Amino acid sequence: MVFLVVLLVAVVVVVLVMRAAASPGGGLRSPRPPRRPRPQRPTRPLAPDDDPEFLRELERRAKRDDGSPT
């Protein structure tokens, strides 16, 4: 009787080890779906009126504008 219990435990252990080795993660947990990459933010603003550097230059030009064409 003890022999059958040991044999059953051995079979269960072998099945679990084989399933763990066959999984992509190599673990006993279920694998997670891959993460989606975050959308990249543009390094510069898309429109000139959103660009702080452009707005500073525009304001600087307006302050020094003496009526002459640029």
Task: Tell me what you see in this structure.
The chain is an all-alpha fold. The protein is 49% helix and 0% strand. It contains two helices and no strands. The chain has helices at residues 2-22, 52-64. The longest helix is centred in the first third of the chain and has 21 residues, at 2-22.
What are the defining features of this structure?
2 helices, 70 residues, mainly alpha, 49% helix
Mean pLDDT value? 78
The backbone outline, from C-alpha atoms, is rod-shaped
Number of helices: 2
* Uncertain stretches of 5 or more adjacent residues: none
Largest sheet report? none
Please state the structural category.
mainly alpha
Helix content: 40-55%
Summarize the helix and strand pattern as letters. Answer: HH
Strand content: under 5%
N-to-C terminal Cα separation, in Å? 101 Å
Radius of gyration: 34 Å
Query: How many distinct beta strands?
Result: 0
Write the layout of secondary structure elements.
Blueprint: H1 2-22, H2 52-64
In short:
By secondary structure, the protein is an all-alpha fold. Helix content is 49%, strand content 0%. The protein is built from two helices and no strands.
